[in-house]
Design a protein that fits this description.
Strand 5 and strand 6 form a beta hairpin. This protein is an alpha+beta fold and about 240 residues long. The strands form 3 sheets. The chain has a 7-stranded mixed β-barrel with strand order 1-2-6-5-4-11-7. A two-stranded parallel ribbon has the order 8-12. The protein has 4 helices and 12 strands; from the N terminus they run βαββαβββαββββββα. The protein has one domain. The chain binds zinc ion. Zinc ion (ZN) binds next to loops.
Length: about 240
Amino acid sequence: MNEILKAAEARAAELTDGELALINRQALRPLVKEEVYSFKLAACDNQVDRDFERFTDASLEELAGLFTGKSVLMDHWWSAGSQTARVYAAQVEAEGEVKRLILRCYMPRTEQTAGTITAIETGILRECSVGCAVRRAVCSICGADQTKACCQHIPGKEYDGRLCVMALDGAADAYEVSLVAVPAQPKAGVVKSKRYGGEEAPGAEPAEDAGAAEEKEALLMARAVQEQEEKRYGGIKA
Ligand SMILES: [Zn+2]
């Protein structure tokens, strides 16, 4: 499957000896504390997000393994030439029901990275996005895997009092982590039922009833967005 992008958040991290040892597994020469800056990214979790998607607990664990060692890209606004941070450790942390993938990252303290470090420390630069791919997107209403066949349920809509969400399962790859100076563009919203790339089910067109004009407009907009958007769920069927 193609890439899914999710918002993440940068947080402060304490650089202990143990953390430094983990960092030095990634470094080509042993680094000392003074030359390293470390931070955490709260990446994806198992809660329903604004796309009405959620990662399964199993997929978060798999992503933890896939993200370790990956580079952290800087939004070009901040960097050009300072793409020097790296994920040195990743794990799923539980907070009650919430399970969240936490990426621990480091970068060298240099003249080039000083501005970025200041921006993270002061909270100006805290929006991030993570890119990954999953093998399945499973409808909470009917259980259909949207990578194989789109069902007629629309994420974010209720069916007999049950909210339709897509469970992202089976981590396939972790592509990127990016720090961005401005929040990621809000996603187009709720009407994205056909972006997963599966075959469209018969009768998948929403019925046009009275008062559906707004919904129709949203659907048309979502389609326009979808055409621009890469078919992120459409690729690998493995
Ligand atoms: Zn469904």
